[in-house]
Amino acid sequence: MYERKARYERRRAHERKRNLMILVSGFCLALTFAFLFGSFLSKAETRESDTVYYKYYTNIEIQAGDTLWDLAAEYMGDQYESRTAYVAEVCQINGLANTDDIVSGEYLVMPYYSAEYK
């Protein structure tokens, strides 16, 4: 009778060990699939924006009739969220308190982006 109980206990221990191995294997398999699937998604996202843009600055001479808003339309590109954000940066760079503080014949530093590395 004792031998029968010992066999039963060994069999139960073997089943628990097997169930644990199945659980661990399933977890590892799920983790592997999640990693592979996640890496495919991240590659798809990076392919959309393969172009790298570099930020540069240029000096321009203000001409009669120029406004910061017109100059912003010419220089800002798609990297800024709005023309207002671009004009605010130009004012900060040039120490302008007001957008009307530009005078014909003076110079402004204008930021711009380019995909070409210079």
TrEMBL record:
Protein name as annotated: LysM peptidoglycan-binding domain-containing protein
Record organism: Laedolimicola ammoniilytica
Gene3D superfamilies for this protein: LysM domain
Keyword Transmembrane: yes
Alphabetic keyword roster: Membrane, Transmembrane, Transmembrane helix
InterPro entries the record matches: LysM, LysM_dom_sf
Domain of life: Bacteria
Domain LysM: 61-111
UniProt cross-references to Pfam families, sorted A to Z: LysM
Segments passing through the bilayer: 20-41
Keyword Zinc-finger: no
